[in-house]
Amino acid sequence: MDEFEKAWQSLLQQLTNTTGQEVLKLGDSMWRCEDLLRLVENTAASAQNSNIALQKWCESLRLLNLGWYPVWQESGLSFCITFKALSPCANLTPLWWLLQLWYLSLSRIYPSLEWRLAWPQSQKTTTPLHFRLLPSHYAPHPTLHVGAQQQQNPQSHLNDILSKLLHHLSLQGSQPQGLLEQVKQQLTQALPTPPQLSELAALHHTPPRTLQRKFRTLGTSYNQLLEEVRRNNAISLLSVKRFTTQQIGQQLGYRDTPSFQRAFRKWFAMSPGKYRQQYYEHTSSQNDELPAVSLYYAIRQERHKEQYHCNGARIWIALRNLSFVKSVTVVGEDKDGLWRPYSATFERALSKELELWSTSNLPVHAPFRFHIKYQVGGKTHIANDRGHDYCLNGPVLLGSQPAVCHQLITVMGDKGKNAVLVRLFSRDYWSQVNVVCHDNSPPQPLRGRQHPGAWEWQGIIDHPDTGLPLIFHFSQVGGAKLTLDNNGVGYSPQCL
């Protein structure tokens, strides 16, 4: 065994010790952790360049179910990956050892790659290691910096085959680690005929009494878990207007409609119809022309154009400023059919009445179905495309706005002059889109590109004084015009 293999096995041992998992279930198959990582390593080794190789290694986060997802950021010839936690209890230690394995493997293929690791806590090893780890410095979020060009690698003819297999396994997802998560997933998938306790026990290769004791130890029971699954699915099904109360009760496994209605009143102290009207239908008084919450726009993140890679999505939300204390959540359907909440945070004011909130990069795959929940003043307002849920199935999805300003970034233009990278989205095609500075400088045109359901307008414009705001003029040959000026204040570029 050579030195590289010894180091590889040592890192694998550290990783499996911290996760407690040497074997994982993907779909209907059992996989050794080592075999999965060997597959990832071989796929990365046959990739066309170092950038794509690192993307392949990112698939290991989902395969091993570590509870982290990568957010890519590019700047010139370098890029960084910030790792975001999927839950507050996500463990940093397994992520640390996995990244050390990335570093060990890719450094052998691309020895001139420059690596830097930022980490929020110190990591200690319980056993001595006889090889060099990637050092780290403190930062509030775990971030991997790779500061070199995309180095080319002779591409193997096996790359396509390995990439397809890796992507397929990634979509299968590793089985949830916790017993309760496994049981709730099994109950959800079996609705409307959930398995009895004895059938669940057989699935987990344990006697029913033993499974009951495990439930009691975890503070729950079979009946409580089934009730929780039915309650969560009832909320999702009520958001779809075409489903009647009777149909929802049948899909949840109740023997008749009154049984479902009694259970629902027990959960929420109201009937399903009243809940649907209060929480999922757009209600506004005649004096309130603006909805409390609405979709502003959403984009699918695809910075790395690769057939089997998706970096997720971001959602922007417009809401009325009804109170200082508020909560905004995007509830989206994951690939396993479960609806999960993602929090949004304040970004900027759109006007005196409206605020713009946004999510971080969400670890989701297309198509992404979602609705928006705005909790303020003891009330919950829902935006869900009139009961159908929004569906992000392309690069961009616009709300009710005819056009939005997505990105204004200060860059270095030709001959070292200041310039601004501009990206706009509009619902309709315009014969001309120009950028105008508030100092009455000549208008500068943007290029248009069509997407399903929207147009993207982009370009790099000269802007010597980056402190001056910009406005955008859309015009048609027939005379129609649209001005995007941020309520008269203009848009200010950002510096990265």
List the helices and strands and how they pair.
Layout: H1 3-19, E1 23-26, E2 29-32, H2 33-45, H3 50-63, E3 68-75, E4 78-85, H4 92-109, E5 115-119, E6 136-138, E7 143-146, H5 159-172, H6 179-190, H7 197-203, H8 208-217, H9 222-238, H10 245-251, H11 257-268, H12 272-279, E8 293-300, E9 313-320, E10 326-333, E11 339-349, E12 354-359, E13 368-376, E14 379-383, E15 390-392, E16 396-398, E17 403-412, E18 418-426, E19 432-437, E20 444-445, E21 447-451, E22 454-462, E23 470-475, E24 481-484
Parallel strand pairs: 5-6
Antiparallel strand pairs: 1-2, 3-4, 4-7, 5-7, 8-9, 8-16, 9-12, 10-11, 10-13, 11-12, 13-14, 13-15, 17-18, 18-22, 19-20, 19-23, 21-22, 23-24
Helix pairs in contact: 1-4, 2-3, 2-5, 3-4, 3-5, 6-9, 7-8, 10-11
Average pLDDT, all residues: 81
Tell me the overall shape. Answer: flat
> What proportion of the residues form beta strands (DSSP E)?
25-35%
The assigned structural class equals: alpha+beta
The helix tally amounts to 12
What is the number of strand segments?
Answer: 24
Largest sheet: 9 strands, antiparallel
- State the helicity in percent bands: 25-40%
How far the N terminus sits from the C terminus, by CA atoms, comes to 46 Å
Low-confidence runs: 280-288, 303-310
Radius of gyration: 26 Å
Domain HTH araC/xylS-type: 181-278
InterPro entries: CBM21_dom_sf, Homeodomain-like_sf, HTH_AraC
Protein name: Helix-turn-helix transcriptional regulator
Keywords: DNA-binding, Transcription, Transcription regulation
Kindly summarize this structure in a few lines:
This protein is of the alpha+beta class. 30% of the residues lie in helices and 30% in strands. A hairpin with a 2-residue loop joins strand 1 and strand 2.
